[in-house]
C-alpha cells in the first residue's frame, strides 16, 4: 500500500533517504521540507565557495551531471514534493501529523504522515562573548552563511580575518581566505594544539608549522574575551592579546539540532542528540532520524558517538530509505574517518587519537614513523608521517592519524586501517597486512606495515621511544641535563650538527656502531636518531644489547622534527625552545648570539 512519508531537512541525509525510498516505492508520496531555500548541497565544498574556487553556490547543488537539485529536479526526476521556506513547528505523534509554517507568509497547516524522517542536522555551538552580534562575524556551517562570508569579503571587503577555533572547519578556511583573497589570517584556539579532537600533539605541531610557513598566525591556549567595534567588528580581544580585524569566523564546533525531536518526546542523549537504533529508528518506530542530529555507536569504544560528517549522513540516508520501504538495513556505527587539506598538507585520521583514547580509559601509547610512500628507487616520492594509537595490554589498534603532501597516498593508507578498526586489529596484524605492491605506489614493506611493526616493538619492550614534543622540551638544556644526541646517520649528514653542538651531539653511524661501541658514552642518556627512525632503531637494539638502558629512539627521526619546524629544510638549524624565546631579555650578548642559532623557522 502506498505510504505518505514526510522528511524534515533537505541538505544531505534527507534527500538521500527520499531518493532511495522512491526508487523502491514509486507509488508512495514523499514530501521534503526545509526552512531554507538553498537545499541539497555538498557541505564539504563550503570552503571552496568561500575561497572563490567555485563560481557560485549553485555548483554545490548540482548532480554529477551538472543538473541543479532544486524543487523542479525533485518533482520531475524523483517524484518528490520539495517544500522550501517551510519550518516544522511540532510533531503530533498520536495523530501522526506535523505542524508546518511557511516562513514567507506565516501560513500554517498540518501535514499527515505514515512515517516521518528527521534530518534536522546540526547548528553552531553557542558563542556568546560580548560583541558576537557585531557585523562581520559569521559561522560557515551552512551554505547560506558561507555565501554571506563571501559577500562580505567582496563588499565591504576584508584585509584581516580572525578564525576562532582550530578544528577542521576553521583550518580549511585559512587557504580559502589567504590564497584567493590575500587576507591576513589569524587562528585562535583555546587548547594547547590545533585539531585536538583529531590528531596528537606531534602531528598538530606539523600542521601549525605549515600554516605559519604559509603566512598564518596561530595562537594557542588563548580564550576569546570579547569582540570590539563600532557596529562592525574591528578587534578580537583574547586573554593574551588584541587582534585587529575586519572579519571574524567562528568555527568553535557544532551540536545536534534536536529541539523538534525533544519537544515531541523522543529519546535524546546526554549529548543532546536524537537516539536511534541500528535501523535508524527513534524511540518511536514510525519516526526515523539520521545525519548530524543523531548519535550512533562508536565502533571502537562501543559507546554513543557523534559524527557530523556528510559521508556518514549519506550512508545513513540510504539505510533509512530502505527501511521506509519495509527493509531491514542496518547502520551499525562509525569509527570516525576524516580527511582534510590545508594548502599543500593533507591530514587523515580514523578512530581515536591519543587524547581521546586516554580520555576513554584506554592505557594507550603511540608509534610514529616517517617513510616514503613509494619504493626508494622510484623517481617520484613523498614522505608519509603516520601515528598509530594502540592499547598497551592487548596490542589492539585504536586509531591512526597521518600527514603528508601526498594526499591520495595518505588517505588510502588511513582508509585501509579505518576499515579494520571495528574488528579490533592488533599492531602485529597491521604489520602483516597485505598491501598491493608496485614501486610506483608503495615499498615492498609498506609504511603501514612499518607502522604496525614499530608499534609491536614498543608494546613488546623492544624499543623505548621519544616523540618530537619531548625532544623539544629537552633541547634547551641538553648536554647539561644528562641527555645528548647520538646521530646514527652517515658522517656527511651528521657533521654540521656535531660541529655546531659539540656538547650535545655525538655521531656514530649505524654501520660503525658495533666496531665503535667503546666510544658510546655510558654516563649520558642517549637520544638515538637518524633521518626517519629506521637506522636509529637498529642502533637502539645494539645499545640495548650493551645494557645501555638510558637510550631512546626518536620516533620519525629528523624528518618529523623538520616538519614540526624544529629543523630547517637543510637540516642545519634547530629551533629555540619557547621558554628561551620568552626569557631572551635575560640573555647576555654572547648568549644571545648563540641562541640565534635556534631561530624558529616561522621567523624566517
TrEMBL record:
Keywords assigned: FAD, Flavoprotein, Oxidoreductase, Redox-active center
Ranges where the Rhodanese domain occurs: 512-569
Domain of life per record: Bacteria
One Pfam family named in its UniProt record: Pyr_redox_dim
GO MF annotation terms: oxidoreductase activity
Cofactor: FAD
Family membership noted in the UniProt record: Belongs to the class-III pyridine nucleotide-disulfide oxidoreductase family.
PANTHER family per UniProt: NAD(P)H SULFUR OXIDOREDUCTASE (COA-DEPENDENT) (PTHR43429:SF1), PYRIDINE NUCLEOTIDE-DISULFIDE OXIDOREDUCTASE DOMAIN-CONTAINING (PTHR43429)
Protein name per UniProt: NAD(P)H-nitrite reductase
Amino acid at each position: 500500500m502506498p505510504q505518505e512519508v514526510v522528511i524534515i531537512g533537505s541538505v544531505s541525509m534527507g534527500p538521500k533517504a527520499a531518493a532511495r525510498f522512491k526508487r523502491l516505492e514509486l507509488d508512495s508520496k514523499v514530501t521534503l521540507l526545509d526552512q531554507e531555500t538553498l537545499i541539497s548541497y555538498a557541505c564539504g565544498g563550503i570552503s571552496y565557495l568561500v575561497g572563490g574556487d567555485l563560481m557560485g553556490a549553485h555548483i554545490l547543488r548540482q548532480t554529477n551531471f551538472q543538473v541543479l537539485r532544486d524543487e523542479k529536479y525533485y518533482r520531475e526526476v524523483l517524484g518528490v514534493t520539495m517544500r522550501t521556506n517551510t519550518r516544522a513547528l511540532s510533531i503530533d505523534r498520536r495523530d501522526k501529523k506535523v505542524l508546518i509554517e511557511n516562513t514567507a507568509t506565516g501560513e500554517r497547516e498540518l501535514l499527515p504522515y505514515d512515517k516521518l524522517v528527521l534530518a534536522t542536522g546540526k547548528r553552531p555551538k553557542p558563542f556568546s562573548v560580548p560583541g558576537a552580534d557585531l557585523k562581520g562575524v559569521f559561522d560557515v556551517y551552512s551554505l547560506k552563511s558561507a555565501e554571506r562570508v563571501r559577500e562580505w569579503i567582496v563588499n565591504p571587503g576584508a584585509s584581516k580575518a580572525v578564525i576562532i577555533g582550530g578544528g577542521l572547519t576553521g583550518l580549511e578556511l585559512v587557504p580559502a581566505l589567504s590564497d584567493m583573497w590575500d587576507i591576513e589570517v589569524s587562528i585562535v584556539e583555546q587548547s594547547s594544539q590545533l585539531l585536538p579532537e583529531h590528531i596528537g600533539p606531534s602531528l598538530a605541531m606539523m600542521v601549525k608549522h605549515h600554516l605559519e610557513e604559509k603566512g598564518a598566525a596561530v595562537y594557542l591556549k588563548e580564550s576569546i574575551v570579547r569582540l570590539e567595534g563600532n557596529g562592525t567588528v574591528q578587534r578580537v580581544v583574547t586573554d593574551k592579546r588584541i587582534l585587529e580585524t575586519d572579519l571574524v569566523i567562528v568555527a568553535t564546533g557544532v551540536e545536534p539540532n534536536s529541539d523538534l525531536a525533544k519537544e515531541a518526546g523522543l529519546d535524546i542523549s546526554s549529548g543532546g542528540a536524537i537516539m536511534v537504533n541500528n535501523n535508524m529508528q527513534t524511540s518511536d518506530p514510525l519516526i526515523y532520524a539520521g545525519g548530524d542530529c543523531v548519535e550512533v555507536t562508536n565502533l571502537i569504544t562501543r559507546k554513543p558517538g557523534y559524527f557530523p560528517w556528510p559521508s556518514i549522513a549519506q550512508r545513513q540516508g540510504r539505510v533509512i530509505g530502505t527501511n521506509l520501504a519495509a527493509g531491514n538495513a542496518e547502520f551499525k556505527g562509525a569509527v570516525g574517518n576524516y580527511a582534510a587539506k590545508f594548502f599543500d598538507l593533507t591530514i587523515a585520521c580514523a578512530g581515536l587519537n591519543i587524547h581521546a583514547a586516554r580520555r576513554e580509559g584506554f592505557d594507550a601509547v603511540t608509534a610514529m614513523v616517517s617513510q616514503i610512500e613509494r619504493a626508494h628507487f622510484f623517481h617520484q616520492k613523498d614522505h608519509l608521517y603516520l601515528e598509530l594509537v594502540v592499547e598497551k595490554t592487548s596490542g589492539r589498534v585504536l586509531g591512526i592519524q597521518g600527514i603528508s603532501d601526498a594526499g591520495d597516498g595518505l588517505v588510502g593508507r588511513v582508509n585501509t586501517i579505518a576499515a579494520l578498526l571495528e574488528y579490533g586489529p592488533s599492531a602485529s596484524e597491521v604489520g602483516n597486512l597485505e598491501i598491493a605492491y608496485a614501486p610506483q605506489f608503495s615499498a615492498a614493506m609498506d609504511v603501514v606495515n612499518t607502522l604496525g611493526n614499530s608499534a609491536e616493538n614498543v608494546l613488546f619492550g623492544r624499543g623505548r621511544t621519544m616523540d618530537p614534543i619531548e625532544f623539544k622540551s629537552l633541547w634547551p638544556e641538553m648536554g647539561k641535563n644528562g641527555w645528548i644526541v647520538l646521530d646514527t646517520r652517515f658522517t656527511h649528514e651528521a657533521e654540521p650538527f656535531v660541529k655546531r653542538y659539540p656538547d650535545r651531539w655525538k655521531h656514530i653511524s649505524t654501520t660503525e656502531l658495533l666496531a665503535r661501541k667503546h666510544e658510546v658514552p655510558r654516563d649520558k642518556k642517549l637520544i638515538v636518531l637518524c633521518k626517519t627512525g629506521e637506522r636509529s632503531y637498529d642502533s637502539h637494539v645494539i645499545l640495548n644489547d650493551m645494557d645501555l638502558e638510558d637510550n631512546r629512539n626518536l620516533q620519525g627521526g629528523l624528518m618529523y622534527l623538520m616538519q614540526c619546524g624544529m629543523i630547517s629544510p637543510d637540516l642545519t638549524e634547530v629551533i629555540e625552545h619557547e621558554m628561551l624565546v620568552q626569557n631572551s631579555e635575560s640573555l647576555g650578548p654572547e648568549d644571545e648570539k648563540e641562541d640565534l642559532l635556534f631561530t624558529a623557522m616561522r621567523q624566517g
